[in-house]
Each structure stands twice: as structure tokens, then as C-alpha cells.
Amino acid sequence: MGRSQRNDNFIDKTFTIVADILLKILPASKQEKQAFFYYRDGISAQSEGEYAEALENYYEALQLEEDPYDRSYILYNIGLIYSSNGEYVQALEYYHQALELNLGLSQALNNIAVIYHYQGVKASNKQNLEIAKGLFDKAAEYWRQAIKLDPNNYIEAQNWLKTTGRTSSDNLY
């Protein structure tokens, strides 16, 4: 039984019904529809913390999906799972792949910055101050890019940039 038929969550059920109706109405190839079903099942599994199942679905969706924009979101979601599992190198790889296909994916830029910031904090706590500074500078670079794309978001990042002197007015707004 497919995940879409097992959803107990009202929002997931509603999303599934609306998605199924749209797929019947909109012109899409069988391959595009199948890619979407895998993607939808991946989102559902991910929301329930079933990361292995979500990854399986996302990888299947990647095999079928040809649209670069849609592929970027699949790659982004894979990055989210790796990041949630503390596998930051893999997460960064998938976030960068997503950005190669969709330069406007500000949330991928933000998540890259969060990873670099986290690693900077860890390095700072170990008194590796030079490494920490480099990681914080990388975090700032990615946060500035995210904020430039989405200036009404990432308020905490904006505050961090200001308080650490990493704000560059030509990069922010």
C-alpha cells in the first residue's frame, strides 16, 4: 500500500486529494505523474520522521523528474534529511546541487549558512579560533545571499550579521 493511502494526518490527506485532482486535470506525462507521486510520498514520510523511506522516494523521484525546478526541491529535501541526521557534508552537497538548478532557493542558502555557523560554534568552543572565523565568514556569505533573495526572512541571521559586524549594506537589501 502506498504511503498516500496510509496518511492519518488531515493536512496530508487534504494535500493528497488536491494533488490527485490536479494531476488528473493538468496535462502531465505518466513519468511526470509518477515522479510527483514519489515526491509526495517522500514529503509524507519525511514529515513523519521516516527518513529512510523518504530518501527512497526522493531518489525514485529524481530518477523520473526532468524539470530542473522540481528537481531542485527534491535535492533540497534530501539535504534536509541529511542535515537532520547530522550528516552535514552530504547535506551541503545536496543543497549545492539544488542551488545549481534553482538559484532562487533562499532556504538552501540559509541552511548552508546554518551548517557553517554550527561548525564555527563547535570550532570556537574548541578554541580553534582561526577555523571558527573562516566558518563564520562562510555562514555570513550565505546568509547575505539568502537575505538578498528574501529580505523579509531570516531575521535572526540579519541580527547576527549586524552584531558580528558582518553586514555589508550593498549585499543585504
UniProtKB/TrEMBL annotation:
InterPro entries: PSI_Ycf3_assembly, TPR-like_helical_dom_sf, TPR_rpt, Ycf3/AcsC/BcsC/TPR_MFPF. Seems to be required for the assembly of the photosystem I complex. This is Photosystem I assembly protein Ycf3. Keywords: Chloroplast, Membrane, Photosynthesis, Plastid, Repeat, Thylakoid, TPR repeat. It is found in: Membrane; Plastid, Chloroplast thylakoid membrane. TPR repeats lie at residues 35-68, 35-68, 72-105, 72-105, 120-153. Belongs to the Ycf3 family. GO terms for cellular component: chloroplast thylakoid membrane. It comes from Rhizosolenia fallax. One of its GO terms (biological process) is photosynthesis. Its main location: membrane. It is a peripheral membrane protein. Gene3D superfamilies: Tetratricopeptide repeat domain. Coiled coil: none annotated. It comes from the Eukaryota. The gene is ycf3.
